[in-house]
Each structure stands twice: as structure tokens, then as C-alpha cells.
Amino acid sequence: MNQHPYLRAYMAGIAFPTAFLLMIWLTGYCIARFAFKISAPIEQLLVFPMAVVPNVFGAWNMLFVKLHQHWRVPIGLHGAALPLFLGPIGAVFVISMGFLTVTERGLIYFGIFRIPYWYLFIAPFVIIAVYYLIWKYIVGSLNKLLGIAY
Amino acid sequence: MTQQNHDEEEIKALLKRAFPIAETELRRDLWPTMLQRLSASSVTVPWYDWALIAGLAGALIIFPKFVFFFAYHL
Questions:
Q1: Would you say the pTM of this structure is higher than 0.80?
Q2: Does A109 map to a domain?
Q3: Is A108 within 8 Å of chain B by CB?
Q4: ipTM beyond 0.85?
Q5: Which structural domain, as residue segments, surrounds residue A122?
Q6: Less Cβ crowding at N or C end of chain B, within 10 Å?
Q7: CB-based contact (8 Å) between A119 and chain B?
Q8: Which of A18, A12, A44, A9 is nearest to A29 (CA)?
């Protein structure tokens, strides 16, 4: 079990977001496209959560295994730092594709959801807390199962 | 045998000596070990993580739009 630790770390990292996001986004896409006949280019929107996020999880877990040899930071804290990178990348995606509009009253996602500005002060803490729990209990358990650092 | 064939045979022999045939077959069934690991792993959640989970659940109930943030940025 000591062979290919980075490959195993990558697999342990991508397992949860791949399954979870596939379930959420593909279901949402199918309902929107086939049930409600929405013709908006939703496919462009799927790139970030379905392709970027799982791979970043895998790479972040590989980085954890590498760092763990020198610096034993808890996996929950390591995972909690990930939204600090993913958040801005996600924002760049939605802004560049025109899915996010900045108005006086707040941000409007996809021309439907209005997010008041004060949400932006709370959202990072909530997302960091969610990531902490996901990494500590889900990715950490998978790492333990695969015999790598946790 | 030509000189070229002789060289090729010699190179083949050298390569075989340098790189022995890899063991590609499993020595034993790994699935029982995996099942053993799955049943042996017990997760204990400390009180502060329960508090965090409760706080997050409360935040999602009060501010349901956070669900949208999670769905996209998870």
C-alpha cells in the first residue's frame, strides 16, 4: 500500500465532489433543459463545478500528502483553506461567462437569483466551515481508508 | 546470423536482465482487507464540530440562498 501515494491522494480527493456535484448539477441540468425547456447555455456553467472543482480537490489532497511529510497540519484546516482559492476562481468563471451581474442592490446570478451584498461578508465563513467538515470527515476518511496521510 | 541480429539479441538479453518481468497478478484477494478496514473505521465527532454542524444547519434555514453558493462553489 506504499506505492503511488499521490495517485491515491488524487483519487481520494476527487471521489466526493465528483459523486456529489454530478448528482446535483446533472440532475439540475436535466430538469432545467428537458422538463422546463430552458434554452440558456447551462453547459458553460457546468464546467466549473463538474470539471474544475473535483480536479482541484484531487490536486489539493496531493498537496496535503506532500506537505504532510514536513508539516503536520490537520486535514480539516488544509481543506478549509481551499475556498480561499476556489472562491475567486469561481467568481472569475461566472463573471467572464456573463452569469453574474453586479447591480446597486446586489449580485444577480443567471438573471434569477439576487444575492444581497451583505451575504458576501458571511458566505466565506460558511463555505470555509463546510469545507472544514468535508475535508475532516469525508476526504480524511477516504485517505485513511487508502492508507495515506489523514 | 548477421551482425545486426546478433546485436539485437544481445540488447534483448541485456534488457531482460535489467528489467525483470513485472508481477502483474495480485498475490491475494484485497477485497476482504478493504471490508475489514471499512468495518474497523469508527469516526468520533467532537462537540465543537457538532456545534459547527448545528450552526451551519441554522444558517441554511435562515439564509436559504447559501445553498446556491454551496452548489456552485463546493
A1: no
A2: yes
A3: no
A4: no
A5: 5-145
A6: N
A7: yes
A8: A44
